[in-house]
Amino acid sequence: MTTGYFTSVDDVAARLAETGYLASPAVATTVFLADRLGKPLLVEGPAGVGKTELAKAVAEVADARLVRLQCYEGVDESRALYEWNHAKQLLRITAGRDESWDETRTDIFSEEFLLSRPLLTAIRGAQPKVLLIDETDKADVEVEGLLLEVLSDFQVTVPELGTISAERRPFVVLTSNASRELSEALRRRCLFLHIGFPDEELERRIVRLKVPGLDEALAASVVRVVGALRAMDLRKAPSVAETIDWARTLLALGADTLDETVVRDSLGVVLKHQDDVLKASAKLDLDAV
Amino acid sequence: MTARPDHVTDRVTDRVTGLVRALRSHGIRIGTGETVDAAAALAALGLDDRERVREGLAAALLHQESQRAVFDPVFELYFPLGVGGPDGSDTHRKAAGRGADRDGLRDRLADALAADDQALIGQLAVEAVDGFGGYGSSPGSDGWSSHQTLDRLAPETLLARVLAAIRAGSAAQGGEFTERLEADEIRRRIEGFRERVRTEARRRVAERRGAEEIARRAVAPSAERVDFLLAGRAHLDELRRAVHPLARKLATRLAARRRRAAHGSIDLRRTLRGSLSTGGVPMRPVLRRRRPARPELVLLCDVSGSVAGFANFTMLLVQALHDQFSKVRVFAFVNRVDEVTGLLAHGVADPAGLGGRILGEATVTGWHGSSDYGTALGEFAERYLDAVGPRSTVFILGDARTNMSDPNLPALRQISERARQVYWLNPEQRGQWSTGDSAADAYAELVEMRECRNAVQLGGLIARLLPV
């Protein structure tokens, strides 16, 4: 049942931190449970809080191969699961002109002509793997049906070959920005983790880790201002990615402290809508931009 | 699935099942599989670290972030931080406040807030409830009140002191810019303290009355399930934030339905006629021509005080859905009708002020301020009937309380004859329809009236009632 990558919650936190992923207690606990219970992990949350990064970090820590299925509208079975290599099949048929039909037919539907797509790849083989199904909400509803078999029993049925079961369970991470509601059936098969904005202390550590040259006091101010922005009910609240971008910008600008001018000039790095910039400027008492 | 892991004791199993029952009673759907997962999670995590237990159970039992608002308080009741008062005993101080040192506690709280020491703030919340929250003296009529605690302690008045303490401490650093954030930060910390006091009081009460009853009664439902008519300010804000996610969900559902419908069906009559040249063998199937799909929508909203929250939310939702309709027109009324479609378009930037702007800029009231459906419907039928056509779906929003005036049924009949369909969404409980001055049942005979009391219901209704 278990994937067996981790021994305890502390182990998760410590080893993820080594790769540069600072996990909140919620993240560490859920990752450990997903590993221990052998269940897929459904990660939701705003863009830019490190959902995809989490899968990458787990793969790195576990020394596992990362198999990624990027979902988009129109992704289908042949992109997600497997496909028959038609060109090769045709070659095989033309090469064997003299054979009887029975010989040819049984032949061209064998492993050799099967093109493994991410879901099948993640299941086959004995090496440890992390399967990342990214932006699951972007895929059509039909794809969720495909996922159900894979995620509950870790097997894939190819009509011509039969059922292929996992020799070794992959660690599965599904991410979603909740732009479409995922089906109840899919949710039931997963452990649920919502990654929100980190608390102040954690975010400060993340910024210090990702932007090493930044002065500690400045990092703290950046995090505080971002926290204030998040409390403002904006159209797009700044995410951790934006905090880091901002910190990098400030470093590049050579700013030592946050003052009115610096904030006003660089607010566009953090906020992505003009409405938000205006609103934030008003609330922060910046002079008209 | 295997049976319950051995090392989870019966007591813990009871807690988990109790927790699940309480969550279910709040409308969170949890299957047996998830309950088993929860127990397995506890077995894997152990019970030493309460935060881990909380996160583990949430991961196993919940499916959506919005459920967290219900989960957290219920969790506090079933897995309480401690038992009894801060020293472990259930010392119920009858004359609460007399034994406790109010000023001393306030001093310590101010220091803790200034230092943002969360552990200490939590401990002080426990002390505060113990010292100031108890009321009553005889068993059965006594209890713990967060309201009373907060009233006596008045933590919000500490703001200036905390601010001064922080400024004094950080004078040397002189981070001028971040100073302007401090007041808001401290307000948030104080709100955090208040929330902890509420949690603590609930826990103490639960000890006396049993967690199950408190979980059922005292835990607030999530914003989406709050009754429109009962929603307070905080809930309305939360509801407004829920508009866009809800609209997005609805949009995908409507778009999917439209896509499916676009496959079309075979027009048998035309297929057969076309088959004459092939001797009656239908070689070429002819698909039924589809009518233009996007519905036109007309909203007619009562914006009088009693139902304004409901109307505002619905208007914002429809506005957010605008690309799903070929045309949306919104009319607001109290006792006079005015078109507010334009106001709503500007309202996207500032949804909070929408209601005020409608009342301020549109002529929705005449000579008095209470709603009058008869006059409003009549005026609509007279002035804006051309907004309604054979392709439009009309939603009327309101509680149908006419304040004893004439319901003007002919006007509604006139509207419903012109429209493709008319639905009346009523935020009142069905049991209250046609009590007092409500003309609900009279209207319901003419047009279909549905009960619509919270955001979840509204979303479902809009998805179901709209034509493809």
UniProtKB/TrEMBL annotation, chain A:
Q: Pinpoint the AAA+ ATPase domain residues.
A: 37-201
> What InterPro entries does the annotation carry?
AAA+_ATPase (IPR003593), ATPase_AAA_core (IPR003959), CbbQ/NirQ/NorQ/GpvN (IPR050764), P-loop_NTPase (IPR027417)
Residue ranges the record marks as coiled coil: none
UniProt name for this protein = MoxR family ATPase
User: Which GO MF term does the entry hold, naming one?
Assistant: ATP binding
TrEMBL record, chain B:
Q: Which domain of life is it from?
A: Bacteria
Q: Which Pfam families match?
A: VWA_CoxE
Task: Kindly provide the name given to this protein in its UniProt entry.
Answer: VWA domain-containing protein
Species this chain originates from: Streptomyces kanamyceticus
